[in-house]
Specification:
about 120 residues; mainly alpha; about 50% helix; about 0% strand
């Protein structure tokens, strides 16, 4: 990931601005609604006290419905994505993905690469 600083701030904000413009150009409107859901059945009775110490959402799982899904997410919650490891070799995309704290995921059977990706997820 890129270190904190003005370069990272600029890339993130420019990315979010361009995503918003793209959505307007396609005629899409978005809204974000924070819904409090009770996960006591799945996570136990004291999960809310443990989760208060976490400052940001840990995981957002989505399914691609259109090519605009990524832009909608960028405009509303600005998540880090999990692109394929091959994208780490594409110059412009690599800078963009690194500025958004993406974790490159190996697509294949290499145990060492999977262990490295899991370690990066644990560190987050």
């Amino acid at each position: 990931p890129l270190p904190s600083g003005c370069r990272r701030w600029f890339i993130r904000n420019f990315y979010q601005f361009c995503g918003s413009l793209l959505l307007v150009w396609f005629g899409c409107r978005t809204s974000y609604k924070d819904v409090d859901v009770d996960y006591t059945y799945y996570l136990g009775p004291d999960y809310k006290t443990k989760m208060r110490s976490i400052k940001k959402t840990s995981t957002v799982v989505t399914n691609h419905v259109s090519c605009l899904d990524g832009m909608v997410l960028v405009k509303t919650v600005f998540p880090a994505f999990a692109p394929a490891e091959e994208y780490s070799r594409v110059p412009i995309l690599r800078t963009l993905f690194n500025s958004t704290d993406c974790i490159y995921m190996p697509r294949g059977g290499n145990e060492e690469a999977r262990a490295k990706a899991l370690q990066a997820i644990r560190e987050r």
